[in-house]
User: Fold this.
Amino acid sequence: MTNSQSTKPQTAVLLHAFPLDARMWTEQKKALEAAGLRVIVPHLPGFGGEAGELTSLEEMAETLVDNVLPEEPVALVGLSMGGYLALEVLAALQQRGQPERVSHLVLADTHAQGDDAEKSEDREKQAQKVLKEGQEFMVETAREEQKPSTAKQTAKMTREASREGVAAALRAMAARADRRDVLRRAGEQGVQVLALVGSEDALTPPEQAQENADLSGGQLKVIEGAGHLSNLDEPEAFNQALVDFLS
Assistant:
């Protein structure tokens, strides 16, 4: 194993979900800073006022490795699309022979598999609809599926994303590779992994989080009463699990 399993990370990098931005991590940033960690929370291109678009998750991962991640081992935290991106960061570091730059990995409400043909087609249809009509239909869907307090937060972030950024992110997610091999290798290299998931997550249910834990030899934590955006649905329970793991 290349990493020290007992070393507490000094820095956490938090990668946001689709179609949100770094503001979704407000409560987690406070909790981690209170626990003594430096926290880096980037907006991805097209979200939170950040210019540009996600041309691919692989390219974005390279940008994060070169320009955002410090040289010392970090804790990498990703939820949903952020989890897909976190796995791409691991893939990039493994290819560079630098796996030790991530000591802890938190995969929240996400999975390591690629999209099947049906899911990819659905994302493309959504991308075309966003470019034509905007993302208000996503706000309406969220209002039906999310807790009222969560839907209120996500509506603002979704509306403030650019149409082009949302469409590009959908296409980038559809084109991503299966990264189960990357996750398995990370566990073998000593990366400490926590799979977090809401008990009511219908998009990436607990059995997929269990697979993340099994592949990496990591831990599974189910956040009771939370849906797909478990950090927004149940922030106190999510924060406690995060701080316990990284401390």
Observations:
- The chain has one domain: 11-113+177-246.
